[in-house]
Design goal:
The protein is α/β, with parallel strands linked by helices. The chain has helices at 73-76, 79-84, 95-119, 124-136, 142-149, 239-252, 267-281, 294-305, 312-321, 336-341, 362-370, 389-394, 425-432, 450-462; strands at 2-5, 17-21, 30-34, 65-67, 90-93, 152-154, 161-164, 167-173, 181-189, 192-198, 221-225, 257-261, 288-292, 330-333, 349-353, 376-380, 399-402, 405-408, 412-415, 442-446, 468-469, 476-478. The chain folds into two domains: 2-230 and 421-478, Metallo-beta-lactamase, Chain A (4-Layer Sandwich); 239-415, Rossmann fold (3-Layer(aba) Sandwich). This is Metallo-beta-lactamase family protein.
Length: 479
């Protein structure tokens, strides 16, 4: 079989890997695409004329099957494009991944429609904006999303599923997100059995709501993510202690407001659940909390529905309190008008809004409205890609450009990593060390910055794993 790396190679986003089964000469028997994510770092030459060139570096109609590790958009975001370009097969994933992917792709389609409408018109400026959108290419709409979702087939965790003779797949809980999985493929060719693991994103242990990532059986080949391959999580406090400390200092000891940029799916639910525990178990006075994201509201319902997939602590908390996310003074914000009205709320409050990197979304509006407020604290709780507003704030820039204006940062900026959904260097190493160095033939490092990959490669080498590869985008390997 042949494995080609078409995404998240020497970068974090755009996970997409093509596994081709068949003879060593043709590899034309069966083609499997593992993940099909949005590449947020994709370079586009807007100076070139618009062409009808394929969006993908392969023929979409020739793919036989798609497998998904989890729902995040950098793993699922280009699935509608795949169907638009001729793919006619199924998408296999867990039931929770299917539900969350439905929400995320429809949300992306709504944003795409807004972008198109803003670019419509006869002015030169509008025409230029539309030209850039068309060259970017991935402007799928609701119909494209519905066409794709119609072909989703859900698979249970831990049960080996036979795709065809000589090909089986197993989804093993990865912990990173509701429904997230490590994917194990077992291929039998000419009497020889080979196994390959696609790690997906590896969760961290003792995380709010999510189960711990599970051990996988020994395999022949492994693709391992390296988002935090070069670092250990800094905070040693529990999520409850860390959040209680920030709230006390920013909203109780002084009449301030706390803005928490958080991804709508996964991170927001962890924060709301932790706040609920603080208010119900520690006697902290419930401060007004605005959860400002329609997507977060919808995905919270999916979490509530899939209680059986959450960790033991969450299930026990639900049994005692009959709720995971609802508590006194929590208000879910739906309309943009209500979102803007939060600025008029004069009492101490907590605003949880997306995007987590402050790269667009409603949270950018809240940051812009409060960046000059010395009684405001912006709490960064996760990874932010270089160049995003979140990254600039995290790195202590004294002035930032927001809403096309350069402004002085007078708000307090803090960061904690107890709510990061990714396992750190030690978690990744533990995941790999379930494998025997003698049996594991190759480890491919993916989904990380180049520096992170190099550090983790050296770490693995020191543990006796010698054939560790950092593939380039488009690079292929015979397995």
């Amino acid at each position: 079989m042949k494995l080609t790396f078409w995404g998240a190679s020497r970068q974090v986003t755009g996970s997409m890997y093509l596994l081709e089964l068949g003879s060593a000469e043709t590899f034309d028997d069966y083609k499997i695409l593992i993940d099909c994510g949005t590449d947020m770092e994709r370079e586009i030459d807007y100076g070139q004329p618009l062409t009808s060139q394929s969006f993908f570096p392969f023929e979409a109609s020739q793919i036989n099957l798609v497998l998904l590790t989890h729902a995040h958009i950098d793993h699922t975001g280009n699935i509608p494009m795949l169907y638009r370009e001729g793919y006619e097969g199924q998408v296999l994933c867990t039931s929770a991944t299917a539900e969350l992917t439905d929400l995320l792709l429809h949300d992306a389609a709504i944003l795409n429609l807004k972008k198109i409408k803003k670019a419509e018109g006869e002015s030169r400026k509008k025409a230029k904006k539309m030209d850039r959108l068309l060259k970017k290419g991935d402007l799928y709409l609701e119909k494209d999303v519905n066409d794709a979702l119609h072909n989703f087939v859900t698979i249970q965790f831990r049960r080996k599923f036979k795709i065809r003779d000589g090909l089986e797949v197993t989804f093993i809980p990865a912990g990173h997100l509701l429904g997230a999985a490590h994917i194990i493929l077992t291929v039998t060719d000419n009497g020889e059995r080979k196994t390959i693991c696609f790690s997906g994103d590896i969760g961290r242990r003792n995380y709010p709501l999510h189960i711990d990532p599970e051990q996988i059986p020994e395999v022949d080949y492994m693709l391992c993510e390296t988002t935090y391959g070069a670092r250990e999580h800094e905070d040693r406090m529990s999520p409850e202690d860390a959040l209680a400390d920030v709230i006390t200092r920013t909203c109780i000891n002084m009449p301030g407001r706390l803005i928490i940029p958080a991804f709508s799916v996964g991170r927001t639910q962890a924060l709301l659940y932790t706040l609920n525990r603080l208010y119900s178990e520690r006697g902290i006075k419930p401060i007004k909390v605005f959860s400002d994201s329609p997507l977060a509201y919808a995905s919270t319902k999916v979490y509530q529905k899939n209680l059986r997939l959450l960790n033991k602590d969450a299930q026990e908390f639900y049994e005692e309190n009959d709720t995971l996310f609802d508590f006194e003074n929590l208000q879910y914000i739906q309309s943009e008008k209500s979102s803007k009205a939060i600025s008029n709320y004069g009492e101490p409050c907590i605003i949880i809004s997306s995007s987590g990197m402050i790269a667009g979304g409603r949270v950018e509006q809240h940051v812009a409205a409060n960046i000059n407020n010395s009684y405001c604290t912006i709490l960064l709780v996760g990874y932010a890609s270089e160049g995003t507003l979140g990254w600039r704030l995290m790195n202590g820039q004294k002035t930032i450009k927001i809403k096309d204006q350069e402004v002085k940062v007078m708000a307090n900026v803090e960061k904690i990593d107890v709510f990061s959904g990714h396992g750190d260097k030690n978690d990744l190493l533990k995941f790999v060390k379930y494998q025997s160095p003698a049996k594991l033939k190759k480890i491919f490092l993916i989904h990380g910055e180049p520096e992170s990959m190099e550090v983790f490669k050296e770490t693995l080498n020191n543990e006796g794993y010698n054939d560790v590869i950092i593939p380039e985008k488009g690079e292929s390997f015979e397995l």
